Amino acid sequence: xxxxxxxxxxxxxxxLAGCKGNESASATVAEPAVVTVGPENVAVAVLTxxxxxxxxxxxxxxxxxxxxxxxxxxxxxxxxxxxxQRVKRGALLARLDDTAVRDAYLSxxxxxxxxxxxxxxxxxxxxxSERLASAGAVAERDLEASRYQATNAEGAxxxxxxxxxxxxxxxxxxxxxxxxxxxxxxxxxxxxxVVQPGDALFTVxxxxxxxLAATVPVDAIGSLEVGTPVEFTVSGFDRRFxxxxxxxxxxxxxxxxxxxxxxxxxxxxxxxxxxxxxxxRVATDTKRAxxxxxxxxxxxxxxxxxxxxxxxxxxxxxxxVGVHDEATDMVEVQSGVxxxxxLLLGSAQGVTPGTPVRVLEEGAGR
Length: 366
Known about the structure:
Layout: H1 3-30, E1 35-37, E2 42-44, E3 46-52, E4 55-62, E5 65-69, E6 74-79, E7 86-87, E8 92-96, H2 99-134, H3 140-173, E9 175-177, E10 182-187, E11 194-195, E12 200-205, E13 209-217, E14 229-234, E15 241-248, E16 258-266, E17 277-282, E18 285-293, E19 305-310, E20 313-318, E21 320-325, E22 330-335, E23 342-344, E24 357-359
Parallel strand pairs: 1-24
Antiparallel strand pairs: 2-23, 3-18, 4-13, 4-17, 5-12, 6-8, 6-11, 7-10, 8-9, 10-12, 13-16, 14-15, 14-17, 15-16, 18-22, 19-20, 21-22
Helix pairs in contact: 2-3
């Protein structure tokens, strides 16, 4: 072969190699780019207990609470309890000035002693008149008069004793005491304040027993019974709490179409406090099943679907759903998803099936 022929053949081979290289480059460009999604856009199917029942929401309140009010008027001499302080029943919370009340008590006690002496004298006179009347030495009119005086003296003593009991009670009321074991949730007075009967001085609550005052939709009233379990969560706690329906309000709120229920909540550990907002549901039934967040289910088509990550790529799968736990917002998946499968959530659900996906690790930079 001549040199010219060799050069032509060489150029032909180079041209052919160049064409293959261009085809390979074109194939690389056509491959979809890897999409990175954050951990907030994925969820894992889990085997869990799903509880069906109406959702409830409301506030916790003390089941046993007492507002301690003034029974007598007068200046507050001293307060002996602060908000947040634990107290026993009968513990002294405050003292009121007892000067006027003590004077009234001493006067009433003196009046009782005088009335007792007057009754003793009247009874002696009546007895003497009885003996003289038996001997015919006293007129019937005088006998009746002595009896009348003794009766009046008995009445006067009873009145004096009643006034003494009242004065003694008022004297005791100048010492303000806790009506139950619990915690002082509020102190409404300071030393030097002048109070009148009925004025609120302290509020004492029993923290060991709370109730959840919650509302449920009216269409769920048929599933409500006294004693039915209720499970709920409270902000700031990473665990669930439970109680039982104690009372059901028979009157519907026409504005909200809600029914109010009262749930007794044991609180022996005293982890919960009155005033916290709670959300949960009435546990009318329980089922153990594979479940995913409701947000992972796409219901826009003719059948519910999910977008899963399989072998590093997005796969759209039709699913069959079952029980919806409204409290946890998890839904049962009866087919199409297995425990441990990874699903896309939120904006990541818009990724086209077949697209390679990489899940960014929690806390990793983007």
